[in-house]
Write a structure and sequence with these properties.
The complex is a heterodimer of chains A (90) and B (417). Chain A is α+β, with helices and mostly antiparallel strands and 90 residues long. In chain A, 18% of the residues lie in helices and 37% in strands. Chain B has 2 domains: 5-12 and 26-77 and 182-251 and 343-400, 3-Layer(bba) Sandwich (FAD/NAD(P)-binding domain); 114-176 and 253-340, D-Amino Acid Oxidase, Chain A, domain 2. Classes of the chains: A alpha+beta (90), B alpha/beta (417).
Chain lengths: 90, 417
């Protein structure tokens, strides 16, 4: 796999660190309650197919990226800066 | 059909024409007392023990592919009981005891070979940690011997003891650990379950789970609707998808774990060896192939194949540990899909839906658990109470924080195990 970093261009997967589902960008309110927080911290949709996830360009520009990737084919369909994606969510 | 030396001799002399299929290929009935979704190792052993231990014979195993075609045929066949934490220790100890009587119980040669397992260590701190783990194993009633450097050299003379980064200080030796023939485990349990009346229904994918008033009433499948008051979900690798049919969202991420095998060689590696610092472990199959693997690729995947960086990393680690294997040629590699739970330990539990039971989250350690997982899952399904050896494998431990079983001590979070 290669990831097309918006800052650095197409780079080898070895330069990146995987964090997990991009739901980390949608942090619940501190007072949302145990059930909501448990869901946020532990439970995952874990789809077999397209998913949005967070990758960190550790050995490159050190940007956090939101990568839209297919978990069955490993095809990467879109890459954007997490800061920009978070702006969309908010 | 029972196997015996006389039967093999007779068949050999008469052209091997008397062998029969090991299990039937039945049509699904309209209703069963219990349904096990998933015909892998865990699902088959669950059905076997439902019939054998609990007298539940009107049982179906629904398998979307064929028996032995999933992770039970895609692992590296290691059997061990060297866990540290209460909850895991007694479960894997029970599993190893079941392994030790499995061939006699199933009348099936699963080629269980207790060749011994050695976990290497490379620093004083690691030695202390392994000494502590060894004591936990001994307290559990299992076997552990702390070997110093010379002790390891005596049984594994071919390792590179003077690796500049990770010199070998010693190892934790677990003599009862070893390997088994993975396909035969699936076949043996399948035959045993079938003989006791369990219907093994292959090419039957579950497409829905029927729930009425908080109770499970059956499943929808590609071969029609089947009713049952008890349904066990034993589909590690696909747990999230099947649980979603019951409206559940699980604490599971699916990751790919790669493994490799070389061409057949004469006997060279007599044990199972793990080199934790390099994320590498190896054994030699009875056919002679060196079977080895490493760490997860570390991204969510259902692809059953990994990427080259981890393949390269595993080869490098292997070369660092035992340079001699550089002459062996790799025949093939494959990937299995792991149900990764936040704390690295599994779940065997009832769900909030009456009659629906969950067995998942085996991470990269499911194979050795096959006998005890089925034993405890069958107990749970038959009696509605957790088995004492699997009482710690609760689904709510992540929410409550009580009873987390984080063997690596890295925290109960995804992506840390």
């Amino acid at each position: 796999m290669r990831i097309d970093c918006p800052c650095c261009g197409s780079r080898d997967i070895r330069e990146f660190t995987y964090k997990g589902d991009a739901l980390a960008l949608e942090r619940p309110d501190p007072d949302a309650g145990d059930a909501v927080w448990n869901d946020y911290v532990h439970n995952r949709d874990n789809p077999a197919g397209p998913t949005r996830e967070l990758w960190y360009h550790e050995m490159g520009c050190a940007a956090w990226l939101v990568v839209t990737r297919d978990t069955v084919s490993h095809e990467i369909k879109a890459v954007e800066l997490a800061s920009a994606a978070k702006g969309d969510v908010a | 059909m029972r196997f015996s030396a006389l039967k093999i001799l007779t068949e050999g002399l008469t052209g091997n024409k008397g062998w029969k299929p090991h299990w039937r290929d039945p049509e699904p009935k309209a209703e069963y007392d219990a349904i096990v979704i998933g015909g892998g190792g865990h699902g088959l052993s669950t059905a076997y023990y439902l019939a054998k231990n609990h007298g539940l014979r009107n049982v179906a195993v629904l398998e979307k592919g064929y028996i032995g075609g999933g992770n039970v045929g895609r692992n590296t066949t290691i059997v061990r009981a060297n866990y540290f934490l209460p909850g895991n220790s007694e479960f894997y100890s029970h599993s190893l005891k079941l392994w030790e009587g499995l061939e006699e119980d199933l009348n099936y040669n699963v080629m269980h070979s207790q060749r011994g397992l050695i976990n290497l260590f490379h620093s004083d701190g690691q030695r202390d940690a392994f000494a502590r783990r060894g004591n936990a194993m001994i307290n559990q009633g299992d076997d552990a011997i702390l070997l110093d450097r010379d002790g390891v050299r005596e049984i594994l003379p071919y390792l590179d003891f003077d690796n500049a980064r990770f010199p070998i200080y010693g190892g934790l030796y677990h003599p009862r650990g070893g390997t088994a023939r993975h396909d035969a485990v699936a076949w043996g349990y399948a035959r045993g379950a079938d003989q006791r009346g369990v219907d093994l229904i292959q090419n039957c994918e579950v497409t829905g789970i029927d729930i009425e008033n908080g109770r499970v009433t059956g499943v929808q499948t590609t071969r029609g609707a089947i009713r049952a008051k008890k349904v066990g979900l034993v589909v590690a690798g696909r747990s999230s998808q099947v649980a979603a049919m019951a409206g559940m969202r699980l604490p599971i991420e699916s990751h790919v774990l790669q493994a490799f095998v070389t061409e057949g060689l004469k006997p060279v590696i007599d044990h199972v060896i793990s080199f934790g610092m390099g994320h590498f472990y190896i054994s030699q199959s009875d056919k002679g192939g060196l079977v080895f693997g490493g760490d997860l690729d570390f991204y969510a995947s259902y692809a059953q194949r990994g990427n080259l960086p981890m393949a390269e990393h595993v080869m490098e680690a292997g070369m660092a540990l035992m340079p001699a294997i550089g002459k062996a040629r790799v025949l093939r590699s494959w990937g299995g899909i792991m149900d990764m739970s936040p704390d690295g330990s599994p779940v065997i539990d009832a769900t909030h839906i009456d009659g629906l039971f969950l067995n998942c989250g085996w991470c990269y350690g499911g194979f050795k658990a096959v006998p005890a997982s089925g034993w405890c899952m069958a107990h749970l399904m038959a009696t509605n109470t957790p088995h004492e050896h699997a009482a710690g494998f609760r689904l709510d431990r992540f929410e409550t924080g009580r009873g987390l079983m984080d063997e690596e001590g890295t925290g109960a979070q995804h992506n840390l195990h």
